[in-house]
Structure formats: structure tokens, C-alpha cells
Amino acid sequence: MTAPGRRLTPDELRELFLFEDLDDDQLGWVAANGDVVDFAAGAEVSVEGEPAECFFVLLDGTMSMVRLVGGSEVETVRTDSRGVYSGAVQFYFGDRLEQRYPATVRAVTDCRFLALPAPAFAAVFRSWYPMAVHLLEGMFVGQRNAAELVGQRERLLALGKLTAGLTHELNNPAAAAARAAAALRDRFAGMRHKLTLLSEGRLDGQVLRALTGLQEEFVTRIDTTRELSALDRSDQEDALGDWLEEHGLSRPWDLAGVFVAAGLGPDDLERVAGAVAADHLEPAVRWLAYTVEAETLLVEIADSTGRISSLVDAAKQYSQMDRTPHQPTELHAGLDATLVMLGGKISPDITVVKDYDRTLPPVPAYAGELNQVWTNLIVNALDAMSSNGEGTLTLRTARDGDCALVEVVDTGPGIPPELQARVFEPFFTTKPVGQGTGLGLDVSWRIVVKRHGGDLRVTSRPGETRFSVLLPLTEPSPTP
User: Which domains occur in the chain, in start order?
Assistant: First the structure.
């Protein structure tokens, strides 16, 4: 940049569309306070994120405007139109808003700009156009406040849906554990009763040792029992029921269901019959049945409480409530936790496919905020497939150069080409009236791009909509 040279005259200023309607006094102020500044080709006129000190108007040459996206510069404007402006474009707020350059402007060719000092221009502009300033401020502040309020409302609604889903998921194993615990009390009472009947028969020590040995063997086989088809289970229950009936046991079909579920058959009960006298067979078999059923109930309680513990762990992972905000983050853990939290929203007819690259290293990130991104993208994918009631949700991770790639793909009807460019706009939504606020993808874009220096893209055609999130694997340069 060369030092400020001559100033423009009021007549020269009137040739610029920004100033053509100013009166003589206003033109005189701009002429007296605006410096004509030259920039050589390649020079930076303003730098994104630095304090915004000047309002620039292009007089001659070609300029470009770039934004930093995912650690790379993306050119948004290239122009040689005389009179276009850049720099402190919100100067009229003065010191009521932190003034920083929103983009980097460079001289593509040798350029000449009119540079107006932002603080001084703000003061005089407010006196010239008080109503216009009020309208501009109202529009800016109103949109920002509306976005914050609606965003808070959307987050509360999302939290309510997640809470309802988590409550539903927790209720099932909790209810199963409660039922198993209540049934277990009855089984222990039955075991005590049958043990009393056996003892009244004055079993000798050898017989009792044989029964307790069979008891331990039967119990250990429960964990290794394979799941049977309905037909196989019915056949085995019929065979065992016939054996029990032939040996004179009452209600044989109740006992058959218990033993078959534990992987036991007629050959096993033959060993019991060989260990005790005929008149002791029924109390011995029922004592063993109570033992087997009690062990099965204990397994069910362990599975249920394990499921509850897993759900709590998923909720902690999702909320990141016991972790520092910014840290090396395992993306797969966040994706899995989000799927757990959204379990109640995933229809049984939706197939979930995880195509994870397990060699992907941790990503420096705000893990809780990324979970919000995964929630928005997955919920949108599920909503897109809801019209058909079925489909495939694919979560894919991979390495893309210096970035981690996360893709959320659905088999819904797709987004029309004319709308794809608008999906990240605030308040824009493709959902019917009354559904959604149109802030989910805007929030996701700001989290990925602004907070993490990454990129968020969408490609769509009927049967395949793909949202791609790129996150730097190394700490990105901070962006304002």
C-alpha cells in the first residue's frame, strides 16, 4: 500500500453510486476525510478477523474477496466495478458492535481505493441518516435475536425429543429388571420349599452331592445356550414334555419350557432320574428347575442393568458433561452415542449401516457441539425417509487428505437442485409448515465451519442425499 495521496473532489465523488445523492455539505465531509490509497497487485487491502478500521470504495483496478473455510481460502467475489465497497461494512454500529473485517480483500491488479475512517464515518453517518441507521440496526439485531430465540426453542424441542427417546429406552430394561427381580423372589421361595421336601426324604450325602453337581453343571450351560428358532424350540419342548409326563411329573409343559430355554433335554433329566429314587424325582426336578430359572432371571437382570448403564454412558458421551469442551475427540463414539439417543426415533424398517474407518485418529474438536451436528443431520435423514416408512441410513467415516470425513447418507426422495444451495440458510426448511424451524442445518454449518474450520457440503438426487462434514485433523487457525 502506498501512502494516502490526493483526495477526491465533491464532483468526483458524485460519480460514485454510493455518494451520488449526497448534498454538498455531505460530499464536502467525505472529500475532506476520505484518503485515496493505492495498492499494488497482490497486496492485502483488509484481512479477515482483524479490527475493521476503514470503509473502502474501489476506484480503479480489480479486487477479490476471500473467506477462510476449512483452513482454505474460498473466493466469494472478484470484481472491477467502480464504486463497490468492502471493509468495515457495519461501521454504522460504531463501538456498539465489535468491528472486524468479515473477509480478506486483495488487489488482483494495481488498485486504487477511497478509504474512509470507520469511527468518524459512523458518527457523521448517524447524524445524516438517523432513521436509516435505526432500521439497519433493528434489522440486524432483530434477525440475530430471533435466530437466538428460535435456536434456543429448537434446542429445547430437540432436548425434549431426546429425553423422551432416552426415557423410553431406559424404561424397557428397567421394567425388565424389575419383573425379573420380582420373579426371582418367587423362585428362591420355591427352591427353599423343594429343598425342604428333599431333606424330609432323608437323602443321603452321596445323592445330595450328585444333585448339587448336576445343579452347577446345568447353571453353567445357560450362558452358552444358543438361540433356538420357534420351530426347534417347540419340537424340543414336546420331546422333553413327553419324558416328564412318562415319569409321572405334574404340569410337565411348564417344566419343559424352563429346561429347554436353558439348553437341557431328556438326556440331562435321565441323569437326575438315575441319581434319586423314583419318589424323590419330582421334588428334585422342580428344585433344579427353580435353580435354572433363578439363574436365567439373574442373567436377564444383568443384561437389563448393563443396558441401562450403556444408555447412561451414551448420554454422558452425547452431552460431554464430564469432559472439557475442546479436546481430541473420537468421532465414532459421538456418532454411536447419537444413534443411541435417537433410538426411539429410528423406525424398525430403517436399516442403519456403519461404514467406519477405525484407523481415523482423534480430531481436535468441541465434542458436544459435534454431537449436535450429528443429531441434526441424522434427524433430517430420518425425516426424509419417513414418507416411505423405510430406507437405509448410512454413517461413513474416512480420511480425506488432512481432514476427517463424516458422511450421513439417506435413501429419501432427495432435495431438488434449486433448493440445495439454500439448505444452510437461516430459517430455510424443506419440511411442511409447522415442522422444524429451519435452523438445524444453519447451526450445523456454523459449528463445522466457524467453530472448527471445517466444511459442510450436500449432494442429492432421488434415493441418495449425502451430507459431508470435513474436519481438520490438526488444530485449525482460529476464525472469528
Answer: 10-128 (2.60.120.10), 164-311 (no CATH), 326-472 (3.30.565.10)
